[in-house]
C-alpha cells in the first residue's frame, strides 16, 4: 500500500513497516536493496525498519538477507487456538477428511477474504496451494461462496467493491450477476460447489456454519476432479459436509448441554 493512499488517521510509518513484513513473507526473505527497490524508498530508511524488526525478534538476518522469524508463528497459533470455531470444528474436520479420504477445511471470513483456520487430509489427497492462514478470494472457493450466501446482499456488494472478482481459472465467477445467481442456488440447495473455479482440476463442496450470531464460517472438502466427479460432490460429499456443519452448529449453540 502506498503511503499517499492511506486513509486519514493512519500511522504511515506503521503501515510501511507492515508492508515490509508482507514483502518478506511474499519473497521468503529480501536484502535491504531489494526491499528499497520494491517500496521505491531509500536504502537508509529501509535498513532502519529491517534493523528494528531484527532487533525486536521479528526477523532473522543471514548473509544480508532478512526473513520473518518464528515469532509470527507464535502469534498465529495463539490466534488460532483462541478461536472458538477452530476448537469446535477441528475434530469434525479431521473426522470428515478421514471419512471421505480427501482434504477437508474450516474457513472463516475476515475483512472480505476467506481464511483457512484448520485443515486435515485423507490418505489420497491432491496437493494444492491452500494452507492454514492463507487468505483467498471468497468467490473462488466452495467454503467462501457458502459464507457469502449467508451474508446480506449489501455486505456481499461491499466485499465485491472492496476486493473485486479476481479470476483464478477460466471457470471462476467473474461478474456480479454470475455471483449473485450462484448465491441464490446455494441458498436453495444448502451447500456450495466449486468445479475448477479456484484451481484447474480441483472440485470442492462447502457448507456454511450458522448460529444465532449469523454465519461463523464454513467447512469444505476438496479433491481431484477425477476422484470427486459432480455426482459424488452432489451426493456423498455434500451429505458428509452438511452433517459436519450441523454438528459444529449444535456444539456452538448448545456446547456442554449436549452431553
From TrEMBL:
Which SUPFAM superfamilies does the protein's record reference? Answer: GAF domain-like, Winged helix' DNA-binding domain
Q: Which InterPro entries match?
A: ArsR-like_HTH, GAF-like_dom_sf, HTH_MetabolicPath_Reg, Tscrpt_reg_IclR_C, Tscrpt_reg_IclR_N, WH-like_DNA-bd_sf, WH_DNA-bd_sf
Q: Which residues form the IclR-ED domain?
A: 71-254
* GO annotation (BP), single: regulation of DNA-templated transcription
Keywords attached to this Swiss-Prot or TrEMBL record, sorted alphabetically, are: DNA-binding, Transcription, Transcription regulation
Q: Which Pfam families match?
A: HTH_IclR (PF09339), IclR_C (PF01614)
Q: Which residues form the HTH iclR-type domain?
A: 11-70
- SMART domains in the record: HTH_ICLR
Q: Name one GO molecular function term.
A: DNA binding
Domain of life the protein comes from: Archaea
Q: What's this protein's name?
A: IclR family transcriptional regulator
| Originating species | Halobellus rubicundus
Amino acid at each position: 500500500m502506498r503511503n499517499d493512499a492511506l486513509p486519514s488517521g493512519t500511522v504511515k510509518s506503521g503501515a510501511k513497516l507492515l508492508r515490509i513484513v508482507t514483502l518478506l513473507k511474499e519473497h521468503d526473505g529480501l536484502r535491504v536493496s531489494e526491499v528499497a527497490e520494491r517500496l521505491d524508498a531509500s536504502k537508509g530508511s529501509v535498513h532502519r525498519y529491517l534493523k528494528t524488526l531484527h532487533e525486536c525478534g521479528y526477523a532473522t538476518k543471514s548473509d544480508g538477507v532478512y526473513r520473518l522469524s518464528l515469532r509470527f508463528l507464535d502469534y498465529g497459533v495463539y490466534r488460532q487456538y483462541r478461536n472458538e470455531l477452530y476448537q469446535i470444528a477441528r475434530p469434525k474436520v479431521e473426522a470428515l477428511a478421514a471419512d471421505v479420504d480427501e482434504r477437508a477445511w474450516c474457513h472463516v471470513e475476515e475483512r472480505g477474504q476467506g481464511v483457512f483456520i484448520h485443515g486435515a487430509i485423507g490418505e489420497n489427497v491432491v496437493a494444492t496451494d491452500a494452507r492454514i492462514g492463507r487468505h483467498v478470494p471468497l468467490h473462488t472457493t466452495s467454503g467462501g461462496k457458502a459464507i457469502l450466501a449467508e451474508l446480506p446482499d449489501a455486505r456481499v456488494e461491499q466485499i465485491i467493491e472492496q476486493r473485486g472478482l479476481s479470476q483464478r481459472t477460466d471457470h471462476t465467477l467473474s461478474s456480479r450477476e454470475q455471483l449473485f445467481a450462484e448465491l441464490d442456488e446455494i441458498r436453495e440447495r444448502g451447500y456450495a460447489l466449486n468445479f475448477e473455479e479456484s484451481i484447474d482440476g480441483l472440485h470442492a463442496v462447502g457448507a456454511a456454519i450458522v448460529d444465532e450470531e449469523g454465519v461463523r464460517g464454513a467447512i469444505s472438502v476438496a479433491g481431484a476432479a477425477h476422484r470427486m466427479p459432480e455426482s459424488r460432490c452432489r451426493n456423498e460429499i455434500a451429505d458428509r459436509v452438511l452433517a459436519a456443519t450441523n454438528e459444529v452448529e449444535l456444539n456452538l449453540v448448545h456446547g456442554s448441554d449436549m452431553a
